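Lab meeting tomorrow. Please check the following:
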Amino acid sequence: MKLQYKSVEELVEAAIRSGKKISEIVLCEQAESLDKSEVEVYETMAASFQVMKRSVVEGMDENLRSASGLSGGAAAKMRKAVEEGRNHFGSLFGSAMSMALAVSEYNSCMGQIVAAPTAGSCGILPAALISVMTEKQIPERDIVMSLFTAAGVGMVIAKNASISGAEGGCQAECGSASAMAACALTEVLGGTPHMVCTSCAIALKNILGLVCDPVAGLVEVPCIKRNAMGVANAFTACELACAGITSAIPTEEVILAMKRIGDQMSSTLKETAEGGLAATPTGCRLCRQIFG
């Protein structure tokens, strides 16, 4: 088997033909491509998951602050609200948001994270999976395997569109991460390969056109809070897909639409810090405050 990762549907068809999960298909293919055993490839992914878990813990430090002073401490506040029962939409949702903030803030403070698929969107995938693993007591091996599903979908998006904010806007970063998380969640919660494909389409559709406008050119404002939003989007896409709700637009067409939108987007809205929130009076003031 030599997958080209040219479409999510290719992964779905391979899974259906073999009677396996998408994660198993991707693991097998990656082992062959890398000339390693499946055990070796799995252990590499498991090690990455350990980094994800550590970044969640380290990012919860209430005293954590970035060098710019723009971020730090939000994850601890969100976690405290959950622990005290002050959040409004349940412990799972609140915990997931706090974890997304934690990993993203830890990134802004130069901590070790896993680019999933980028540093700017690093909080979405670990927050989605770790919160669900904890809440539903899912075996860690199942969670690690679901990362292969996320990786396979991410490779399709990277091949046919982009995962770079500089190239496609934040839709390409937080959008791709959210779609990857939705797919991983859908599989680990018992969804079929077709449902996995649908969750990808729904997650990406919900985030099309999102610009990349980092204040002062730093991956902090509004990036960190967009990671929390990305988890909410992943949950939404997973819930809809697992309920049997389908996407009117096929996944591959959604991915290509994202690419076309990115190509048409002004360069001021693609990581240059020349437009959007970065160009607001407050955004400009914060830039001068940091850099003079």
Residues 74 and 101 are 7 Å apart (CA to CA). The mean pLDDT is 97.
